[in-house]
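Entry type: protein chain
Record version: 2
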Amino acid sequence: MPKRADAHIHLFAGGYQGESFTARPGISIDEAACYDSLAAEHHVTAALVIGFAGEDWCTENNAHLSEQKKIYDWIYPLAYVDINRIPSLQDLDRLQRQGFVGVSMYVFDDDARQLDQVPSAFWQWLEKQRWMVSVNSTGEAWTAWHNVLKQSPQLPLLVSHLGLPPAVTSPLGQAGAAHSLRQITELARYPDVQVKLSGFYALSSPGHDYPHESVWPYVEQLLKDFSVDRLLWASDYTPCLDWVTFPQTIDIFEKMPFLNEADIEKITGRNLLALLNMVKT
């Protein structure tokens, strides 16, 4: 069985507290221990743990990920960075010593304008260290990344959840998919931009409509513009479990007739493992 690598999971000290089963009264889940069991069963040898500390219930998430890294060797944490509070180079050095291999940024609406205020030294440090930058964003906000990538064209930028195009109830034609993804596919000109194939439940209605055939035209368009070498499987654990099973986040690719076995091996493991081999720790 080929090794797998997951490009987007979350681990929180008290469990994910969004609108999820982990937030229900009386529910207590050790997310890391649960994922460790899933990783062993499904041959996942590495997982990017996407930090998020943007709400009151998870302000210490970076510290939690640093502690979990000491326990599980499959954890490759990305530190949450507030676009309005960019860490200094000394802070980045400290995070690197703690085992982080990148940063996680959530850039929506007005925050996109803040990207132009980020010191170039910050991007240059990340680019030199080959640290991954996982970004959650959508729509026109993606266009703000052109200025960043022009100055740091080798920045390993990972687009989360297909770039969050509009959710669909039935398959779009390729023209419709191309239009909805235009801000994302314009980033394909930068060779180190990768796209995570994740969050299908959030892009189709209803969200439990596995195998989410309505979203497949998006995947076909991304395959055309980025090639299979720049697409990454990501489970979006634990939020995904409100809609699908963990195996379904992987098996979905076997349902797509435009992917062959070699493509699936790249998407579900080889591509991300190659990126991790380049990270300086």
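Comment: The chain has a mean pLDDT of 95.
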